[in-house]
Automatic annotation (TrEMBL):
Molecular function via GO: beta-ketoacyl-acyl-carrier-protein synthase III activity
Compartments reported by the entry: Cytoplasm
Record keywords, A-Z: Acyltransferase, Cytoplasm, Fatty acid biosynthesis, Fatty acid metabolism, Lipid biosynthesis, Lipid metabolism, Multifunctional enzyme, Transferase
Name of the protein: Beta-ketoacyl-[acyl-carrier-protein] synthase III
Sequence ranges assigned to domain Beta-ketoacyl-[acyl-carrier-protein] synthase III C-terminal in this UniProt record: 253-334
Active site residues of this protein: C118, H261, N291
Enzyme Commission number: 2.3.1.180
Biological classification of the source: Bacteria, Bacillati, Actinomycetota, Actinomycetes, Kitasatosporales
Gene designation per UniProt: fabH
Length: 352
């Protein structure tokens, strides 16, 4: 039996404030019908003023740790690695992961951020799994969290309709490749030639080094929607198929569920079509939360597990596409996990 990283805990969190399509329609030149037709989204959650990505990451992390503990798995004090996937850190410097680790009572462990936008969770999962199988760590908390509401142009109906805030997390432990929950493989890729398709142009060293003020609007997120649609379908489908072929999930052992990045319902359906899968095999939760970027895949996974749509023994494929351009997929047989929706006590919020 070969050494593997095994999923043994799962948790997710969205902020309580809900923004339905009708609220956006009152503020922008849009309508509930326009948003639903083009994206499949009905509502999204956004943080309150003063909140930050770390607050969501901590809540999702607590739930994942409680989930692991409920099955007799990794307790908080057993975690020796925290990897946070985010494109909206609390500050440009330092990384947000050490703050999250400290607030979870994990101060002193290795903790760092991974930036791959909407593919971030898959990349973070791959990094953590590699460290576990190499023996660098024994138990890891992997979190995807983003607060894109903080970088959207208030007047852009397209981006404001798509994105929401949220976080999801898993706990990994070392184990054997034949165990339920073992991560069976990854497929990762990138194409920097498309970096301008999904970007925030201002705020980094490229713009700051000019010594000139950023052009108006460059401080906000921007996306080339049509081009991104095409690239997302192409690269998620190709990455997923590459991994399926590599691990031999074909014929009677084909994929049971695909949990893809929740960007747009038409993208999800198109990926399913490319893989020859039925609509019911594609997990969809973006109608309730929108595109939560790095939080998207673990949030969708948690919702599907809670609803009984992803069950123990299911062959589950995770796949994402995001800025960079980046894409990636991961595969596992789903284990028997206990979700803990509201562990107590609530951690105090610390802002700096």
């Amino acid at each position: 039996m070969s050494r593997a990283a095994v999923v043994c805990g799962l948790g997710a969190w969205v902020p309580p404030r809900v923004v339905p399509n009708d609220v956006l329609a009152e503020q922008l030149d849009t309508s509930d019908e326009w948003i639903r037709t083009r994206t499949g989204i009905e509502r999204r959650h956004v943080i309150e003023p003063g909140d930050a990505t770390s607050d969501l990451a901590v809540e999702a992390g607590r739930r994942a740790l409680a989930s692991a503990a409920a099955r007799g798995g990794a307790e908080a004090e057993g975690i020796d690695l925290v990897v946070l996937a985010t494109s909206t850190p609390d500050h440009p410097c330092p990384a947000t992961a050490p703050v999250v680790a400290e607030r979870l009572g994990l101060g002193g462990v290795a903790a760092f951020d991974v930036g791959a936008v909407c593919t971030g969770f898959v990349y973070a999962l791959a990094v953590a799994a590699s460290m576990l199988t190499a023996g660098t760590a024994q138990r890891a908390l992997v979190i995807g969290a983003d607060t894109f509401s903080t970088i959207l142009d208030p007047g852009d109906r397209t981006t404001r309709a798509i994105f929401g805030d949220g976080a999801g997390a898993v706990v990994l432990r070392t184990g054997d490749a034949d165990e339920p929950g073992a991560l069976l493989g990854f497929d990762l890729g990138s194409d920097g030639a498309g970096s301008d398709m999904i970007t925030v142009r201002a705020g980094g060293s490229r713009q700051r080094s000019t010594g000139e003020p950023a052009p108006e609007g460059d401080q906000y997120f921007s996306m080339a929607g049509r081009a991104v649609f095409t690239e997302a379908v192409l690269n998620m489908s190709k990455s997923a198929q590459n991994l399926i072929d590599r691990i031999g999930w074909t014929g009677d052992a084909s994929v049971d569920r695909v949990v893809a990045h929740q960007a747009n319902v038409r993208i999800l359906r198109a990926v399913g079509d490319q893989l020859g899968l039925a609509d019911e095999q594609i997990v969809v939760n973006l109608d309730k939360v929108g595109n939560t970027v790095a939080g998207s895949i673990p949030l969708a996974l948690a919702d599907a597990v809670a609803a009984g749509d992803v069950r123990p023994g299911h062959r589950v494929l995770l796949t994402g596409f995001g800025g960079g351009l980046t894409w990636g997929s991961a595969a596992l047989r789903w284990p028997d996990l206990a979700l803990v929706p509201d562990p107590t006590p609530t951690l105090r919020k610390e802002q700096s």
